[in-house]
Amino acid sequence: IYKAQIGVVPVSTNDEFMQVAGGAKLGEEDATRTIYRLTSDLDFTGVKWSSGTNPFTGYLNGAGHTVQNVTISQAVDKTGMFSKVAGGTIANIKFENISISNSDKKQTGIVAVTEGGYFHNISIKNIKVQGGERTGGLIGQAFEGNVNTEISQVSIVNDNDTDYYILCLLYTSD
Fold first, then answer.
1. How many angstroms separate the CA atoms of 70 and 109, rounded?
2. Of residues 160 and 159, which shows the higher confidence score?
3. Least confident interval from 25-34, 56-65, 107-116, 129-138
4. What's the pLDDT tens digit per position in 87-99?
5. What pTM, to 2 d.p., does this model score?
6. How far apart are the first and last CA of the chain?
7. Residue 122 · residue 98 · CB < 8 Å
8. How far apart are CA 93 and CA 117, in angstroms?
9. Are 73 and 101 in contact, with CB atoms under 8 Å apart?
10. How far apart are CA 140 and CA 147, in angstroms?
11. From the CA atom positions of the chain, what is the Rg in Å?
12. CB neighbour list of residue 74: distance below 8 Å, 6 or more residues apart
């Protein structure tokens, strides 16, 4: 019988969310055996997005909460709220009023790149993504290999015809 110790770490501030999205730990936890649980809605109005570039490998449970009003503008590859997900899970979360641009560089999306991961029960409302190659709404580029990327129950809805648009859910590559 397989048995593993799983910890739950609450995420309640914008700074904590950016740390987790950037692949940083909030304490001494093993990210691959941790559920990061959002404890409230997060509003990023006026907040400069700053997250690391380490891969996210944990489990983010949004617990039905909304992350909103995020603006990211960078001139680098792998631009997104999560620059890379590697075997991690993002679930039960809402993203609203998200704007991500990277000056025509590649790999742009809420998740810029995934190398295996699970994306479940995600609602995206009013997203604007601008980038070069490998640009998508949820995932910019999904690499397949030893670990599959699985997506289920994801919705993208844009209310404002003039300001928001969707390029695609994800871009896949060998």
1. 12
2. 159
3. 129-138
4. 999 999 999 998 8
5. 0.86
6. 35
7. no
8. 15
9. yes
10. 17
11. 15
12. 101, 102, 103, 105
